[in-house]
Amino acid sequence: PDHICSPQASLQHLLSAFVDLDGNGSICDYELHELFKEANLPLPGYKVREIIQKLDRNKDNEISFEEFVSIFQELKSSDIAKSFRKAINRKEGILAIGGTSTQSSEGTQHSFSEEERYAFVNWINTALENDPDCKHALPMDPNSDSLFKSLGDGIVLCKMINLSVPDTIDERTINKTKLTPFTIQENLNLALNSASAIGCHVVNIGALDLREGKPHLVLGLLWQIIKIGLFADIELSRNEALAALLRDGETLEDLMKLSPEELLLRWANFHLENAGWEKISNFSLDIKDSRAYFHLLIQISPKCTEEDQPHTDISMAGFSEKDDLKRAENMLQQADRLDCRQFVTPADVVSGNPKLNLAFVANLFNKYPSLTKPEGEGIDWGLLEGETREEGTFRNWMNSLGVNPHVNHLYGDLADALVILQLYEKIKVPVDWTNKVNKPPYPKIGTNMKKLENCNYAVDLGKMTAKFSLVGIGGQDLNDCNATLTLALLWQLMRRYTLNVLEDLGDGQMANDDDIVKWVNTTLSKAGKTTKISSFKKTIQKNHIVGFLMNLFEKSCQRTPETKL
Ligand SMILES: *[C@@H]1O[C@H](CO)[C@@H](O)[C@H](O)[C@H]1NC(C)=O
Ligand SMILES: *[C@@H]1O[C@H](CO)[C@@H](O)[C@H](O)[C@H]1NC(C)=O
Ligand SMILES: *[C@@H]1O[C@H](CO)[C@@H](O)[C@H](O)[C@H]1NC(C)=O
Ligand SMILES: *[C@@H]1O[C@H](CO)[C@@H](O)[C@H](O)[C@H]1NC(C)=O
Ligand SMILES: *[C@@H]1O[C@H](CO)[C@@H](O)[C@H](O)[C@H]1NC(C)=O
Q: Domain EF-hand spans what residues (predicted)?
């Protein structure tokens, strides 16, 4: 248990967890497959069968317990052990297997923000206040480092992820009681895999970092998780009333291109304008004196429209207070009356902490958007389509790889191909950033030409270097945000990425389409599905492949027996 995070120990644990699911005294490939999944090392079917072949000395296609024991010593130094080691040591990829990342183990001291620690602890305490599974950890003391200890078993993290994006984590897969180093490790892997599935960038963080509570890494991950939750509904397709923020001459499409941060700023300014107050251009310097916040609170607070309607009259008594800190405290007391005293202290307001003030405003928006959906003004609501599951997965996949900037809108944010070019690097296709790529800020005149050139380059790289099949796709299509054609490129990128990951898992052995088909075949038949697939080129539609890859990407969060396809 002391060395549970070492690869050997994990392997040992996997093997000592030897179980015989169907109780016939031996282990078959299905059972082994389950074991690998349990150990958070899902392996393709062909790999599992290879292992069986290696272990099965009397060639009856099953491994008896004796065979297993007799071979155990050898196994330690075998190729299988090597691939495990490699899998466990992976620093990047769809499988966030535990361990300490190189970056975090360099021994350098990282400073962290006590303001953030204070803010996040209070937020978590409130959010999970009534969750019986978190009783052992909550409430945490915001003034101490107890956060880092309390998150160490992974339960609170899993809960926060599921709160930010509901249904990310299957309740049953969290080990909540009788925690051992192994089950803790499982919980932490589950948290990391799930965080990655909702689009957090977790490349530089491992289970051990969380277990040990490395402050800068824990806070970094928490902020990503919290932000995803805060921003989830700041999106036109989720809240049509945001169309009230349209300015003269703008279309819904223009508004749809804005990032959540930009929408929040618009929203605040919309209310400030109604209040006759000056606009702000950021949640930093411009809010330091709390005066904009006072006006915002008045605008959004529930008004007394009918008798007996609950309402809150915001008091402006503190508005003309001379001292900045006292004014901020007065403002926050009013926010408290709306149940929105979150994320910032008076000092955070006065110092203009941009991150925490952004969170404060996002929470205000979520609780009191106070917008009315405009009616019958020639707005083409047909444009408003929520993201499909497929699109969401692609987006989360890119974000989990740490592309910059963060992708909020699958097509619009790819229109200059910069993110796509970063994805090429992830699949080991070199990009000539110096000579072939136009980087922002783009010139005022000819912006789109610069973006189009990038798109052309991205398509060329796909055709010439990555050898993708991109018949009939041009840079213009990416630049035009053509969904079908952009997806055609994206799924090939994701597919190549996945094959690379499988290859790494197989210790350098080439994984190819056939391996995947075999794996899918096995998984399907074991899950009692009658559908079989024969080859990528023939039967499988593009959508099936995408579905399969998404499944591969997502299943790390769902250790349920059925593999959905
Ligand atoms: C995750 O969220 C869903 C829906 O909100 C809920 O039914 C489920 O119990 C949650 N799981 C956990 C682990 O909290
Ligand atoms: C952890 O949880 C899983 C899913 O509920 C369960 O199958 C497994 O037995 C648990 N492990 C331990 C050691 O309790
Ligand atoms: C915020 O906006 C003001 C102008 O309103 C500007 O002077 C200041 O530099 C901005 N601060 C940040 C952090 O962007
Ligand atoms: C995207 O491109 C395809 C193929 O050229 C075309 O049929 C389709 O109409 C385009 N979609 C849009 C929305 O322009
Ligand atoms: C998958 O199953 C189908 C139907 O049983 C079979 O024809 C095909 O050869 C299998 N493919 C692989 C790669 O195992």
A: 47-78
396 within 8 A of 402, measured Cβ to Cβ: no
- Between the CA of 172 and the centroid of ligand 1 the distance, in Å, is 9
Residue 113 burial (C-beta neighbours within 10 Å; 0-12, 13-18, 19+):
middle
Which ligand sits nearest to residue 182's alpha carbon?
A: 2
Q: Contact at 8 Å (CB) between 218 and 210?
A: yes
Ligand 5 contacts CB of residue 521 (under 6 A): yes
The secondary structure of residue 284, as a DSSP letter, is: S
Task: Tell which atom from ligand 2 comes closest to the C-alpha of 183.
Answer: 13
Tens-digit pLDDT profile for residues 48-84: 666 666 666 666 666 554 454 444 334 333 444 344 3
Which atom of ligand 2 is nearest to 177's Cα? 14
- Are 347 and 288 a contacting pair, CB within 8 Å? no
Phi and psi of 64, rounded to 5°?
Answer: -80, 165
Only one residue has tokens 């950890």, namely 137
SS3 (DSSP) at 26 = strand
Helix 291-300 × helix 354-367 angle, to 10°: 10
CB 511 within 8 A of CB 503: yes
Indicate the pairing of strand 63-64 with strand 26-27.
Answer: antiparallel
Q: Whose CA is nearest to atom 10 of ligand 4?
A: 482
> What is residue 63's three-state secondary structure?
strand
Q: Identify whether 42 is preceded by a cis peptide bond (ω within 30 of 0).
A: no
Residue with tokens 């296609």: 61
Give yes or no for a contact between 13 and 4, defined as CB atoms under 8 angstroms apart: yes
* 5-55: pLDDT as tens digits: 223 333 333 333 333 334 344 555 665 666 555 544 556 666 666 666 666
Nearest residue by C-alpha to atom 13 in ligand 4: 482
Determine the distance from the C-alpha atom of residue 455 to the mean position of all C-alpha atoms in its chain, rounded to a whole number: 26
